[in-house]
Specification:
about 500 residues, elongated, about 20% strand, Rossmann fold, Nucleotidyltransferase, domain 5, alpha/beta, six-stranded mixed beta sheet, seven-stranded mixed beta sheet
Amino acid sequence: MGFSTLTESLIFKRTATTQLTNSMIIAHTVEASSNLFNMSKLFYDELPTPLRPMKKNSNSKELVFENPSLDPDEKRKNPGLRSKIKIESANNDGAGRSSTIHNLHVSELAFWKNPDDVMLGLMQAVPNTPNTMVIVESTSNGVGGMFYNMWQQAERGENDFIPMFFPWFEHAEYSMPTPEDFVLTDEEEELKKLYNLTTDQLTWRRWAIRNNCGGDPELFKQEYPSYAEESFLSSGRPRFSIGVLKKWLNEAKQGDKGYLEKNQLVTDDKGYIEIWEYPKPDTHYVIGADVSEGLENRDYSSASVWDANTKQQVAKWHGHIDPDLFANELEKLGNFYNKALIAVESNNHGFTTLNILKRSYINLFEMEKYDEDRDIVTKKLGWQTTKKTKPLVIDNLAYLIREKLIKSYDKTFINECMTYVREENGSTNAQSGCHDDTVMSSAIALFVLENYITNYLEHFETNAMSNSKNDEYIPFALREGEDINLSWHDL
């Protein structure tokens, strides 16, 4: 669409009109960097003579705007801009180090061989001062990697880059006359309605798949995506219905963000809680919780709140926090949503969260497990994810999404669903470089909601009355025995 040209023009204008300005262009290969750099040379050559700054040097590596005179007195009187545009290749691990860069163009970051180390050096070279600029533009190259992570962080507001995505159908050139015998496929009909496309645009799309992408529609999605996440979905087999998730993504919206204090939301754009629908009187809610160890740059702790009547996600908690402190947040979230039933995944760090939470919260989900050897039933707080129970909750979530029986406006949850895949061995997990925290928290909540909500409501009402007389509360229990291995069809 010409965004590389646009970026180079912005950098050229800033460098060719401002004193003491250093700019750098860096792409995945020397050839790609040179192609971008040649635009700057062309801009200079095409400028009217009165607008051209003095040029000291122009070679394959740099364009220097400075007085070319060898006379030191003349240079002292009229030094010129003393600004320059330089190119580098991402194959140079030391690119940009020991420099000051005011304008940086990073091209095709998704295809760099060693992006983490090179970008670390480059970003240290850009001062955090006014009139500096960093533009990262790239075609996607599957899920995972530095470019994908930077994009996800920008979308979540976790860095200061502004995410800008432009779908293929916004480009006027991606259109061609429709033949008389052209008949739309079901997929094309859906795209036409979803994005308000013309048949001429869909004619070009079919031509581009056949001629530009080797007949592979998945490669078209990578090179000519319709929405940002589609461009990353180039590998793996999505477990959930991408068609439904696409529609959800188009309707996704940000809720009210903040923190819960004294049973009220204190708004804060960087808050861990996001609310799409506030609690309603006489409404029951279920919360699923996935607990992480709380370290930055690792998995998140996540809690998903679902309305038991409408089966709509109404809120979430998502962030990095120590497991014991997460218990306090879950308690506040549960109390806020009418003493919601909380089902905490008890694996690993979830035990710490449950151990704290059980001391003060009255409505916790509890599993019962039959011990065949001793012929007794043992109780354990929380939802335990095992080889038997994980397929149950994931299959149930897949069914609910496919049949459109639930609804979410949560972009984080939708994106995680899109990158949750079947592995070759039949297991399901987040694709490499992705997260599944909201997938698991929602899957647990919805399985409990779908299969045990009637028992829960009866149990809740009974204990609510007894609770008014004493503080003892028996958590709601799910018995885990032979029947736990049923498929969702049987359930």
